[in-house]
Amino acid sequence: MISHIPVLLEESINSLNIKKNGTYIDATYGCGGHTKLILSRLNNQGKIYAIDRDLKTLLKHKILDKRIIYINNNFSKLQNLFKNKTDIIDGILFDLGISSFQLNNPKRGFSYMFNGPLDMRINQNEKITAHDLLKHINVKKLSKILKIYGEEKYHKKIAYNIKKYIFNNKLNNTRDLSYVISIVNKKNKFKHPAKRSFQAIRIFLNKEIEELKKGLNISLKLLKIGGIISIISFHSIEDRIIKKFMKKHSSYQNQINNKLPLTKKQIDNFYTKNKKLTLKIIGRIFPNKNEILKNSRSRSAILRIAQKI
Description:
This protein is an alpha/beta fold. The protein has helices at residues 9-15, 33-39, 55-60, 78-81, 100-103, 130-136, 139-150, 155-167, 174-184, 195-205, 208-222, 236-248, 251-257, 264-273, 289-294; strands spanning 23-26, 47-51, 68-71, 89-95, 223-233, 279-285, 302-308.
């Protein structure tokens, strides 16, 4: 079993500009690595809301500290969790994707590297597993899922193959799924042929993109003025959504930073049309060479940071 190493740990926590008596949200608690470092920078009045929809992971890696409030739920429901309160949080951290403990547990069925049931549910209380999804979905929709969420070149052929094998009861575990995909997809020395398809099925099954969009919008309401939102993503689909979100809520600031000529009339018109601009983009950070060498999972990570204004 490979131990979990938090990606961009110091960089993400430093980006939050931790106040000793502040209130923070770790929206994707996982194994608790980020929360633990935030705790080390808080005094007794500080507080962290640790959120994760995977109850087993939450219980397994629970830190006993009175400053932590644990919440087993989706981060897309943040607004309901805080009873529609606004402007109460000093910083929010999202570490997207799944942890190494989830990925490397064969029983969870997330990985093409281990044989296990076709599960892939982040929240084990959800009824539909990956096997259920693949069994009942049609070829056309499955192909679309592989294309959109996995950016898979051979999405049509893979979708056809999956449906053919599952119809003949020859697709019952992750090893079978990996094999079926590999028949179509050519081997690549950098990526396993099943990587993109496994990612796509997991993302769709767990509604990860919808979760992300909802969570980002709710974060704006919860953050105090001056509060920080920091988001670590691991693939281009997530990163595009985050980038678009930040740009949407900080367009005027971007124009000023780029020193585009704006007349007074243009500025007035811009404010009239964009009364809800609320973010200042701080920047983005990539893992350095040393981190990538120590933790290959960090290779694709991007940390984007913005501040509520």
